[in-house]
Amino acid sequence: MTTRRPCRCLRAAALVLFSTLAAVSSAALFAEAPYKAIRFKVDVTPAVGLDMAYCPNNKVDSPIYVGGVVLDDGATRVVWCSCDYIYICGETYEDWQKKIAEAAGCPPENVFLHSVHLHDSMRVAPEFNPPAGAVDDDGKPIPLEGSDPEYVAKSIGDITAEIARLVADDAWVPIAELKTAETRVGGLAANRRLVDESGKCVEMRFSMVTDPALQAWPTGLIDPMLRTVALVKEDGGIYAALHFYATHPQSAYRRSMVSGDVPGWAVRYACEKTPDTLHFYFNGCGANISLGKYNPSADGEAIAVLGTRLGEYLVKNLSLLEDRASGPIRLYRAVVSIPYDPERVNPEHKTWGTRAYFEKTIDHWRTAPITRFNAGEVNILSFGLSELGIEYQLYAQELVPENFLAVAGYGNGIYRYMPVAKAFEEGGYECSLYAGMVTPEIEPALKAGIREVLAELIAHPGWVGAPQK
Question: Which residue in 108, 32, 100, 110 sits closest to 76, CA to CA?
């Protein structure tokens, strides 16, 4: 079940307009819309000694960043923000949206805040931390389950200060058009749920796989496409590139060293090859996808191999860019009701941590947003939820096969895993008590929300809300 949330960019008048499109020339409705943009990138590498998501940070393997673009069409402003974290969770996620929005000069719901989902990185959720002074049975301090509050405060302070400075300095760059590319990727993503002939998940092919038998299983169900949205300047140069690909992004973790892992390496590679362009990576619905099939080691050596492979595809997409008709920025938003299983929310009855925090604040998280960003022929689907199965991304793509549609997942990490209904019968990690809290009814709820935000594209195949080429 979904309910429509009021959106600044989608008014009742716009709905009337959509219903009369067949009778009115699209050229008369949508003049070509010039854009302006600001790109930003902030180093948020944690200090040595801080607790990360799974282990302490004893060494910096590679820095991590929060970056993206502020895009404005003269009437609507949005922020696309890619974060090198495993998650940003709960009220902290909402707080960051508000603070970034204030710095950029737009509503909080126009801030598309997404984590790359790196595992040797930070879980930004100080509300998950144990009580001050908590110790384990051996009298040792309990590691932070969330994150160091001072680190969180400094990071968002640095991010918003940079955005606010650029806006105050009027550092806008005219963007003549948005171009897109999509190419089929090989040797990276593979499904990690290995289901046999009986319909049961018999093995999990996680990110670090050294068993040849597991690597030998077929690639399985994935979305093999890397999709890119490029912001092109008036002189034809590419100001920024937003890349979208679906998989768990790490090839090694629990190494006690912060790392940008495969996406970080890939982005560095692409920036070196195209120094005038800033590249930003967004993870799609990669909950049940990993790099394990193609990971030749479990000690970090594969980062360079797989990172270079992904980086080559990022650069390749810049050579494949296609012209897209421009149009005003429009946002289509649905609010999805999330079906929780009370027995799965906090099965161990913990008094602090992720599950305990969720249980105490559950009424606040009973709904979640799905938003479609549209600018002419460019569409990006943004999930405000965390770990969705690849089936939801493929479902959205299948609904609008004649349109360009990129997908960004890993929004608010509070929601944890969102598998499809069939996965509950198959078994496997994503449906375990440890991983998820929802019921099988999550599938019809999410699919209804996806259909809602894609409704105009479904009703008018190939229609883009802007003049056709």
Answer: 110
